[in-house]
Amino acid sequence: MSSDPNYLLDQKKLESLSHYIDMLLDAICIVDKEGHFLFLSAGAERIFGYSREELLGKQMLEMVHPDDREATLNAVDDIMNGLEKTDFENRYIRKDGQIVYLLWSAKWASNEAFRIAVARDISRHKRAEAIQSAMYAISEAAHHEESLSSLYKRIHQIMETLLPISDFVIALYDQQTQLLTFAYTSSDVDGELLHAHLSQNLTSWIDSRKVCFDTDNGWIKVPLCTAERVIGSLIARVEAQHINTEDSQHLLEYISTQVAAAITRKQLHDRLRFLAMYDHLTGLANRELFHDRMQLAIARALRQKTELALFYLDLDNFKQANDTFGHDVGDALLQQAAERIQSCVRSSDTVARFGGDEFVVLLETISHQQDAKSIAEKIRQTMAKVFIVGGCEIHLSSSIGIALLPVHGDVEKTLLQHADHAMYEAKRLGGNQYII
């Protein structure tokens, strides 16, 4: 060692400076041309989770997240060509397997033949951004997804941006029926096994508003809580290092309230939409929905120069059965009649209830009027079969009026009037028949 007093002074200064460097939260790193660590501050130990002894000589690219390695190599090339980087971001995998987001400032020191870089841990900032983005995405999905099934799928996609999820389930609990149903299940989940496990522990996880960790099987169960009750649970299988961590628990508790609100909002929206567009007794389309579909079908038929048929149907002897057996039996008859009519038509056709015992059927596409006659006869025969309600055998029949486009008109009002008049003519002639 040199006895030069200036050298000794410099060493003391360096030792003192190193002490202060180690107080920095950021990591200061020096790597050689091939990317091996030559020097690291104490901040590197905190960020990467390795000791300095473990890091020295280690190739830094080994710890870079696989998805970020190509971008990292491109950034290294820029630095080696003399470009100073001050805002490069990538992800590293810590010793414990967790992912850390880093913001780098780096420069190539050509005289010393090494790169010097400063890394700042921005994981909390990135997580906050991800949570905020997820909350917005969940809220958007609740308003814009067309169905609950599409909402559940979107929630799965959003959750995957927050945690490394391999399996995902949304289980809903009906307090009235005390039934547990899987509203959504990712394709690789053993549904029967999971359902059996949940059913055995149903009371504990339904009553609890806390996140439950099944460390043996790698499952996290997150209750979906509204202000009044628990409506179900998010269930996810995640990588072992994310099980039962405080960060994961707080994140899942926070997001579960948003998901529960989104599901509840969508369920209410769908219920209101159903009440507005469908008959509450039979589940068939109501007048408003039928009108919309009729307008579209007429426009399509006129544009494509095709034919369509409209049936107006009334149940013969329904009033007598309703008065004899009571309104409950009458409602059951209407429900069975609706099911029978639907069984006779295609899924693309529309069956609607206009009120009382009056039904309409829209056959959107027919090749010939004989198609309409065949379906009308099928409905007539089906409706003539005995109805059994509450142990009682009840005999009904149907009168069906048929209107054809373009034969009887090309506007909804005209077609409905023709079918209605034909139906009354069929009833006047004794019922249990159809008339065009």
From TrEMBL:
Gene3D superfamilies: 3.30.450.40, 3.30.70.270, PAS domain. PROSITE patterns: GGDEF, PAS. InterPro entries: Biofilm_reg_signaling, GAF-like_dom_sf, GGDEF_dom, Nucleotide_cyclase, PAS, PAS-like_dom_sf, PAS_fold_3, Rev_trsase/Diguanyl_cyclase. It comes from the Bacteria. Its cofactor is Mg(2+). Signal peptide: none annotated. Residues 13-83 form the PAS domain. GO terms for molecular function: catalytic activity. NCBIfam families: GGDEF, sensory_box. This is GGDEF domain containing protein. It comes from Methylophaga aminisulfidivorans MP.
